[in-house]
Give the backbone structure.
Amino acid sequence: LTLNKQVVLLVGGVGGAKLAYGLAKIVPPERLTIIVNTADDFWHYGLRICPDLDTVMYTLANRVNTANGWGVDGDTRAMLEMMRDYGEDPWFGLGDKDIATHLLRTQAWQEGQTLTQITQRLTKGLGIACTILPMTDAPVATIVDTVEQGELGFQDYFVRHRWQPTLRGLRLDGIEAATVSPEVEAALKAADTIIIGPSNPWLSINPIVSVPGMRELIEAQNVARVAVTPIVAGTAIKGPAAKIMGELRLEVTVKTVVEYYATLINGFVYDERDEDFHIDSIRKIAFDTIMDSDEKRILLAHRVLDWALGTSEGDRIR
Ligand code: FO1
C-alpha cells in the first residue's frame, strides 16, 4: 500500500466513524483528513452539541461507548438524574464525561473561535493525530418534515422520536450562508483520493455536499472519488437509511445510492452479499463491508484504499 498519499474521508456518525477508525490505523496521521457532517448539531441546555464530530473523535480516541456507537465509554448519568429531579424529561443522553466536551466547545464558541479551531483543540486533547474538520464553520441544521409531527429539529426526530415519524421532506436551515472553510478546501485540493464513508447519503453526506461550492470542489478533483455502500442486502446496518428511502419512495437498493451520488463519485464499493448488483455507469468492486470488529475495519479500509489508489490487482479505478 502506498503511504505517501493524501486521503480525505467524508462521514456522518457511527457507521462512518468505523471506517475512519480503520483508515486511521493504516494512513499516517498527517495524510488523513476526515470531513464530518455538522447538520445534526444543536443547542441543548445552553451547550453546543456536535454529535457526529463527537462520535468520530471518541471512536478515533478509543473512548467511544461501543455498545451505542456514540457517547463516552464508561460514562455515567448523574447530571440527567438531577434533571429528572427538576421535572425535566432528559430525552437526550448526555453522559457526565461527555458534557466536558460540550462545555469546552461551548466556551470556545462563545469566545468567538471557529468550530474548526475548537475541533482541533478537542482532538489534540484526546490524543488524535489525524485531522478532523467540520464540513463548515457556519451553523447548519437539518430540519425533518414529518407526516405525524410536521417539522422537527434533527435530534428531536432522531433521538426523541427514535426516527419513527414518517419523513416527507428535508431541508438544511442556514446552508445558503455556509461556506467551505479554507481548511476543507486545502484538504480536498491536496487529496489523492476522496472516500465517502458508509454513512446515510440523505442525512449525513447530503448536508456536506450541500455546503455551497463543496460539490463542485469535490467533483473538480481528478482523483478516485469512492463511496462505500451504507446499504447491504436491501437494508441499512444501523440507523434509518432504509426506512427513509422507503418513505421517499426510493427502492432500497445499492443502485439507488449510486444514482443518488451520481457525478459526485467515480467509484463505488458495494457489499459482496449484493452479488446480483449490476450497473455499467461506474467502476465498482465488492468487499465484505460489515465492520463488526476492529480487524474488519482495518481490512476494509485497506481494501478500499488499495482499490481507490489503483494499487490492487483488480478493477483499476484510474
Ligand atoms: N443517540 C441516541 O440515539 N440517543 C441519545 O440519547 C444520544 C445522545 C448523544 C449525546 C451526545 C452525542 O454526541 C451523541 C448522542 N447520540 C444519541 C447520537 C446522535 O445524536 C445520533 O446518532 C446522530 O446525530 C446521528 O448521526
